[in-house]
Amino acid sequence: MDVAPAPFVVGVGRSGTTLLRLMLDAHPDVAIPAETHFLPKLLKLREEDGALRAAVHSVMTTESTWADFGLPSERLAEAFAALSPFTLADGLRAFYRLYAAKFGKPRWGEKTPFYGRRMPAIEAVLPEAHFVHVIRDGRDVALSLRPLWFSPGEEIEAQAQNWLTKVTAIRANGKGCRHYLEVRYEDLVLDTEAVLRRVCDFIALRYEPRMLSYHEGARKRLDEISDEYRFRDMPISKEARLALFVETLRPPDPARVARWRSDMSPADRDTFSSIAGGLLRDLGYPLS
Q1: CATH for 6-282, among 3.40.30.10, 3.40.50.300, 3.40.50.150, 2.60.40.10?
Q2: Residue 213, CB half-sphere, CA atoms under 13 Å: how many?
């Protein structure tokens, strides 16, 4: 089967993955849903299980993100029933294609940041997966992540270790993948067209200038997320979820780059660098 490359946008939370998702989603040929979260559970299912079709359907439709996609579970079941034999790969493609078809688009993508930790396993199931790792200066990630419900903690030590561990792991996983690309958040904001052209080349997609106007349709695209999402059994309101993405409702803001210079205390800067300075240097970020 000849399947078009599918962009999988990954990275540490608060690194610009939603920004890139909305830019790609603004392309007339590509639709990327909100975060799915169900892939790790699906990857544990056994292909030889005769009940695989029902198991995949159950995992997808009982995930707390399911309501975000606006797909009737019955419609997914119909798509699954048409697959013979049924495989996990084709079940996943059926889901993504149903989602893209809602918008009249032929191609699909994925944006769940923590899938960066599952890239080789995802690629084994979906060879068309092309992983785009969005990397942002860890100090700015810490400033953005600290007050949120999925933060590793307010202490700068926890923030630095979180960024160091996750970025290092994703990069290590990327070395084992056939299709892996790193882009910097800072470049995406300051030289948007050049980065988008590079990503488009990577996924064999023609460049479309309308991707630069992603913000014009961002609110409508983000509004599909629901009130049914739960984080570790804690309900998270739609309002709280939308608040995460307020910056994507306008064009890229250069003021979001290197905020740590003005908003992070000298002590926290020093502590962050003492833990993650080596990776900052490797990625080309200045330590001061």
Answers
A1: 3.40.50.300
A2: 6
